[in-house]
Write a structure and sequence with these properties.
The complex is a heterodimer of chains A (509) and B (131).
Chain A: E1 2-3, E2 11-21, H1 27-36, E3 41-45, H2 59-66, E4 74-76, E5 84-85, H3 108-118, H4 125-138, E6 141-143, H5 146-162, E7 167-169, E8 171-173, H6 199-205, E9 209-212, E10 214-222, E11 225-234, E12 241-254, H7 257-268, E13 286-292, E14 307-309, E15 317-321, H8 326-329, H9 338-345, E16 350-357, E17 362-367, E18 373-378, H10 381-400, E19 405-407, H11 419-427, E20 437-438, E21 469-471, H12 486-502, H13 504-508
Parallel strand pairs in A: 1-9, 2-3, 2-12, 3-9, 4-18, 5-20, 12-21
Antiparallel strand pairs in A: 4-5, 6-8, 7-14, 10-11, 11-12, 13-16, 13-19, 14-15, 15-16, 17-18
Helix pairs in contact in A: 1-6, 1-12, 4-12, 5-10, 10-11
Chain B: H1 7-20, H2 36-44, H3 49-64, H4 67-70, H5 79-90, H6 95-113, H7 116-122
Helix pairs in contact in B: 1-2, 2-6, 3-6
Classes of the chains: A alpha/beta (509), B mainly alpha (131).
Chain lengths: 509, 131
């Protein structure tokens, strides 16, 4: 059963075997798997409950409804290190409601690295394969087909194939996708199989109680064990505190995401004997390259993130499609005055593609109070070099596809007019300050490991310091994935849930 | 409704918007005639307080910065000088100048191109490949 703040008493008190904080890719999965085993579950979500009838496809309206801080959460760096915009979801289903729906398994090379370098138990490819299969079945992971790819993806595919760059149609969590192109404003047809249309209803069917507009603030600890959560009930639209809640539980799972999970732990002064909570922030910083074609592209029609190029994955570069409506596209387009307007007047002829770096740069999350973070991220010269190379590659593919002009969004390279100009970028030493980046995959801030001095949680997400306290989101990843993380988050959350259930006597007796 | 910006900040925003998006061209509307600065203020009301404060500071920085080169504030410059000033900041070798310009420009263009009349001229309407 899903409750909104209007359904709740002013002072709510409840009990459950497990209390989960956060309803995104990690929390929703954990709640469903625990509830399916017959345990009682309360799932808390700070944001509101929205369905497809609320998704208007208007970015200005959806920023206010579905995004934390209107999508303007930003990291800051030292002079010369660019700020990075990190949009996050704040609604039932979390960031899965506003993401592009891209699904990749954790790469085998990453699983091997985690096993060998971080000593993570039971996360070899053979261990994880059945878990990925389970998740993929529930959220219906399937490849984008030509009828919904859209011309933006199709043209880029054409350009990449001419250059013999490996890639393919992206796999997504979708059913009967109509190619509306507004995935990041909420899927208007429930085709994107986000948490609010998959794991959350499944959890609810198994008896989980889902309380929305409930902001978790205090972790209750008794005798060194997690024993529950308390916090505030918020009014929709204003976030005014209109009530309070207390959930008593035998196990608490924190899944607020890699930015707010460390904030929760830091605010409560728990789980940080290693000093690692909030550290090791990775983002997958990304750049966007635009191209102008003679022909009409109408890039907003079709799946925005429909094709990928993984030819350079071993260099830490992944290219993926991206397209947004003109009001959002304009935010990253150059020129002032009539020149800017004339470029936007040709939006039908614009193509767009993005690239992200598997970063070795590291950042840190600090708490600024309840539910508020301050993030530092200093992009390294080597990651900037990767992104500079990614821009050159993407631009080259655009020219190969027939684009007549490319706008690389790199300072010092306003417009590229031919493939020769791509070589100039590749030869140049691109520095961090030259880049305009966004990032959608924060991770690593409560990393797992077997050494309690260097990690926050063990191989299965349990805090080294507080028994029965789990972290089940992207915070636990010890290094960058290099690919979109939602499937990895769901898989590792499933794994943690199974671990709890396999050790039920320890946790629930 | 409580105002977010002071009258001076509202004026700065309006002049900035009109410089970035003047009348003319294939999209004939200017920012002012579409009420862009008023709608930017409405949008900013949903930002967290620290971000609102930040935007207000950025508006003032952009208004006072030309004093060092032109001995006038931004709102007192003529149209050509205003455009050139913003172009200089957009292409500055200093990252901070570029970021300040981008932050304010982003709000203005977001609201301008969200206008349905502008979207119609561009040829954009949210629909699906398989309707």
């Amino acid at each position: 059963m899903i409750y909104t703040e209007k359904d709740l008493p002013k002072n709510l008190e409840d009990s459950a075997d497990v209390c989960v904080i956060g309803s995104g890719a990690g929390g929703a999965v954990f709640a469903k798997e625990i509830a399916s085993a017959g345990r009682t579950v309360v799932l808390l979500e700070e944001g509101g409950y929205y369905t497809s009838k609320d998704f208007t496809r208007n970015p200005v309206e959806m920023f206010a409804k579905l995004y934390r801080d209107m999508g303007m959460t930003t990291t800051f760096g030292l002079p010369g290190r660019p700020p990075v915009l990190v949009p996050m979801g704040r609604c039932l289903g979390g960031t899965t409601v506003i993401n592009s729906g891209t699904c990749f398994r954790t790469p085998e090379s990453v699983l091997l690295k985690w096993t060998n370098e971080f000593n993570i138990e039971k996360c070899m490819p053979d261990d994880m394969a059945p878990i990925f299969e389970r998740v993929e079945k529930i959220i219906n992971v399937t490849s984008v087909t030509d009828d919904i790819m859209g011309k933006n993806g199709a043209k880029f595919r054409e350009g990449a194939k001419k250059l013999n760059y490996s890639g393919g149609p992206i796999k997504r969590n979708m059913k009967d996708c109509k190619g509306c192109g507004t995935c990041v404003w909420g899927c208007p047809h429930d085709s994107k199989q986000a948490m609010h249309v998959t794991y959350i209803p499944l959890a609810s069917e198994k008896g989980a109680k889902i309380y929305t507009r409930c902001r978790a603030e205090k972790l209750i600890v008794k005798g060194g064990r997690a024993a529950g959560v308390s916090g505030s009930i918020l009014e929709a639209g204003t976030d005014r505190v209109i009530g309070s809640f207390k959930i008593n539980a035998k196990v608490v799972a924190v899944a607020c995401g890699a930015i707010l999970t460390p904030v929760f732990l830091l605010n409560n002064g728990v789980g940080n004997s290693s000093g690692e909570v909030g550290k090791n922030l990775r983002l997958h910083p990304g750049i966007r390259v635009l191209a102008l074609y003679d022909e009409e592209i109408n890039g907003w029609l079709g799946v925005p993130q429909s094709y990928y190029v993984d030819h350079f994955f071993n260099e830490g570069i992944m290219l993926e499609g991206v397209f947004v409506p003109p009001e959002v596209g304009a935010m990253g387009m150059p020129f002032i005055g009539l020149e800017h307007k004339e470029l936007l007047a040709d939006y039908k002829h614009i193509g767009a593609f993005g690239a992200m770096a598997s970063d070795t740069s590291s950042g840190r999350v600090f708490s600024r109070g309840i539910g508020k973070a301050f993030m530092i991220y200093n992009m390294s010269d080597s990651d900037a070099k990767k992104l500079g190379r990614a821009v050159a590659i993407t631009s080259r593919i655009f020219f190969s596809a027939g684009a007549k002009k490319v706008f690389p969004s790199v300072y010092g390279f306003l417009t590229l007019n031919s493939e020769k100009d791509c070589e100039a970028i590749e030869r140049a030493t691109i520095r961090p300050h030259q880049l305009e980046c966004m990032a959608f995959h924060p991770m690593g801030t409560c990393r797992m490991g077997t050494n309690p001095k260097k990690s926050v949680v063990n191989s299965f997400g349990e805090s080294h310091d507080v028994k029965n306290l789990f972290v089940v989101d992207a915070s636990i990843f010890p290094s960058s994935l290099g690919v979109n993380p939602q499937e990895s988050i769901m898989a590792f959350s499933t794994r943690s849930a199974f671990y709890v259930l396999d050790n039920s006597e320890r946790y629930f007796s | 409704m409580e105002f977010l910006f002071t009258p001076k900040e509202r004026l700065i925003l309006s002049v900035l918007a009109d410089t970035m998006l003047p009348m003319g061209g294939r999209i004939p509307y200017g920012a002012d005639e579409l009420g862009v600065s008023r709608n930017v203020e409405t949008f900013c009301r949903n930002l967290p307080p620290e971000a609102q404060k930040g935007i207000r500071i950025l508006l003032r920085i952009l208004n006072y910065a030309p004093i060092f080169s032109h001995f006038k504030t931004f709102i007192k410059l003529d149209e050509q000088k205003r455009k050139r000033f913003l172009e200089k900041w957009e292409n500055s070798k200093l990252m901070a100048k570029r970021n300040i310009l981008t932050a304010v420009k982003s709000l203005i263009v977001l609201i301008y191109f969200n206008n349905p009349d502008v979207a119609k001229i561009i040829g954009y309407s949210p629909r699906c490949l398989k309707e």
